[in-house]
Predict the 3D structure of the following.
Amino acid sequence: GAGVSQSPRYKVAKRGQDVALRCDPISGHVSLFWYQQALGQGPEFLTYFQNEAQLDKSGLPSDRFFAERPEGSVSTLKIQRTQQEDSAVYLCASSLWRAGELFFGEGSRLTVL
Amino acid sequence: KNEVEQSPQNLTAQEGEFITINCSYSVGISALHWLQQHPGGGIVSLFMLSSGKKKHGRLIATINIQEKHSSLHITASHPRDSAVYICAVGAYSGGGADGLTFGKGTHLIIQP
């Protein structure tokens, strides 16, 4: 597609449910980033992929968070046993190379009740 | 970890005014990004710069590497410029991403 596509745009989950958020980056972009943005805050880095390799996952807040990009294109961020503090907008960004211009998706807004 | 500070946090101005948003960071970087985020919307990259100055339409971004400081200027501001402007810096050393470190953003409102 023309831009970075994320789905779902909005997700409401009950505490304890598992959720999966999808990111479809721009075709050919090697680098893919996930960020978490709490209300009124700037985005915080979660994890980074170069093709299918997850090179940095230092920002994942707990072992309930898991991300994959098995074929080096689409990526999924999975959150297990969601908690209220997981409520945030999850942003995906891709770039042609690691330090290149970033293109962001619209984000997935997760609300955990 | 890089500390990124933006000022002001909130700015309300009248249409036509010249706007300046500042960003300072604590550790040397490879590149600095200025991003725009509309309410409920995604983030758009405005500039990526590592030195000097860049201009696109009514937007101008400057960076002073020695002083670890960047500014985003908007000339002849318009209500459609109302958005959150975010500064983000990256170091890109080593094999990992180093992530981008984001400022908290500047909430700009341009009144007609």
